[in-house]
Amino acid sequence: MSATASSGGRDGRGRGLPSLALFVGASYLVAIAGSAAASDAGALYASLERPPWAPPPWLFAPVWTVLYALIGVSAWLVWRRAGRGARTALLWWWAQLVLNALWTPLFFGVRQYGLAFLDICLLLIAVAVTTVLFWRAHRAASLVLAPYALWVAFASALNLSLWIHNA
Asked: By C-alpha distance, which of 149, 31, 135 is closest to 77?
């Protein structure tokens, strides 16, 4: 096996676990920041008037735990490929991560449901753009993002409903 093959690419970006840990860790930092900004999120969510299709409060933690891992893995796959378009795709990935980080403090921290809805709509756009760019750079990475995109679309509808019913 050649040195290039063993490192996973010409520039060595394919190295496994350290770079994977970096991308997944960046994703989980968003979760940690959100938790710090909204320590009473479960109680607040339970107190809101919710539509009948709203998930129970206990479901969010396991869903987001899986989604943050997928978000990190998807970026790692694109970064490893580091081909044409990867830089732009990863910039969009970072942009969606920032928008994701802003949502929890807006919704639960300062209870600005309308601003949170604006943020999650921008997040949905950023996730869609990221998914398309990931498709061009690494199709599997794009597919890994699909559950996240679907959840953000669902969460956008839920945010809108909560805003309307609790304004």
From this structure: 135
42 by DSSP, 3-state: which?
A: helix
- Residue-wise pLDDT tens digits, 25-41: 999 999 898 888 888 88
Residue 96's nearest CA partner among 134, 42, 45 is 134
Sign for the pseudo-dihedral over CA of 141, 54, 159, 66: negative
User: pLDDT at position 84, please?
Assistant: 59
Tell me the three state secondary structure of residue 31: helix
At 2, is the pLDDT very low, low, confident or very high (cuts 50, 70, 90)?
A: very low
As given in the structure block, the two tokens for residue 95 are: 């942009």
d(CA 19, CA 77): 10
Burial class from Cβ neighbours inside 10 Å (0-12, 13-18, 19+) for residue 145 reads: buried
Return the higher-pLDDT residue of 122 and 8: 122
The crossing angle, in degrees rounded to 10, of helices 86-104 and 17-37 is 30
d(CA 103, CA 18): 28
Two tokens, residue 82: 């580091």
As a whole number of angstroms, the longest Cα–Cα distance in the chain is 63
